[in-house]
Prior knowledge:
This protein is an alpha/beta fold. 60% of the residues lie in helices and 6% in strands.
Amino acid sequence: xxxxxxxxxxxxxxxxxxxxxxxxxxxxxxxxxxxxxxxxxxxxxxxxxxxxxxxxxxxxxxxxxxxxxxxxxxxxxxxxxxxxxxxxxxxxxxxxxxxxxxxxxxxxxxxxxxxxxxxxxxxxxxxxxxxxxxxxxxxxxxxxxxxxxxxxxxxxxxxxxxxxxxxxxxxxxxxxxxxxxxxxxxxxxxxxxxxxxxxxxxxxxxxxxxxxxxxxxxxxxxxxxxxxxxxxxxxxxxxxxxxxxxxxxxxxxxxxxxxxxxxxxxxxxxxxxxxxxxxxxxxxxxxxxxxxxxxxxxxxxxxxxxxxxxxxxxxxxxxxxxxxxxxxxxxxxxxxxxxxxxxxxxxxxxxxxxxxxxxxxxxxxxxxxxxxxxxxxxxxxxxxxxxxxxxxxxxxxxxxxxxxxxxxxxxxxxxxxxxxxxxxxxxxxxxxxxxxxxxxxxxxxxxxxxxxxxxxxxxxxxxxxxxxxxxxxxxxxxxxxxxxxxxxxxxxxxxxxxxxxxxxxxxxxxxxxxxxxxxxxxxxxxxxxxxxxxxxxxxxxxxxxxxxxxxxxxxxxxxxxx
Length: 562
């Protein structure tokens, strides 16, 4: 009995230890990403306009948008929007635009419930009817009480219907996340929707301004305006506009999260930027734009390529038509670079080649060149560049030659690097841009020739930080130390707000060339702390730092935001 009892107790202990170790030490890195809420997805489709008057078409979209606000307010479920349905209708291969959207919703997006409805004109008033449909059986679960309001104020009806729908899902009153706490004015909402469909930058900002003028309390167009100027690199204007925005209340977590994100972007606080975008990703993981932004921030802002795959796989790409989906190609672009950073060159090449078999996407050319070089596929690289030389402009071709040369420098294959740099330096006069020529000479270490060309470029572009850094290094290498010092002084005087560590990164390049390790690491840390991006040409992808990338100090730079 003694040995039997001891055996049972020992077995239980072993099982317990196994479960604890398995739970705590076998977690995949993707577990660090936010867990998407497991509640059922709800599709909210635009309401049918049965008035016979096309001027009310915009009301269809307004109804679905405001119902989405009501659902996300209390975090009832993840929402599939009409915008997402329309995007799938456009980009799904072999699907007709006029195909029944209910079929598309059920087949590809698979919600558990679908909210839809119609509105009519009745004695000069609008009459709204909404219903909740089972996503699997397509049967109506409930028809909500019709709402009636003046035709001049459709948001009154929409808000009443919204309360009925959210009241169906929510049994107790609790405050959650919502972008806008009260309905905006009709005209403001109309201008915002028009802005979202605009492809012209000036028209887009004009419509956002009109929306804000029509309703000064409207939060969303104010945030979109901040984002627009940030993306245009007009950081000062973006920051000024951000400071003017006040949230509806200091309990509206989603508004506060967006404001914190843009404030962090403008400060170069990339850790906060990543945390904020992941909160948005939790709310709308299937939205292509939100998903794309989360991918970019993970890779370029905080150097977490290991997080990219989990975010990328959230949206299936099998049926996407890349010719009609710029967000799709951007997602492939980021995923390919993440694979390259992780040494998964075969995966990077495969995803790019598959995309380019469907459509020619120029932004995928550079990562393909990088993956070919790093994986040792010289024949594939040569064949690809011969094709590029025929179909692309000389400038585009030379950019790829320069990139290939730099990649071979990173591999310490000097003869192969010079082979590609020579394609630039030996090109006919007038075909090569002076900056491109200077870079090729510089990376060939022909510093005397590079210095002359760089000096000419600097005269034309006196505030180009990259040119100044290379000019300073060229002067240092040929022994013109006084000139190099002058170049460094000019660099220091170029410091300004919203540079995100650009000057310090350039100084890091200089001190790497001068083999001054303390100054090198100091300036690289300052650069990354100021918000400098990690990307295909920076840090360990920069030939200036080839002999330093395995040091403990350099790893600290690479892991600064981790």
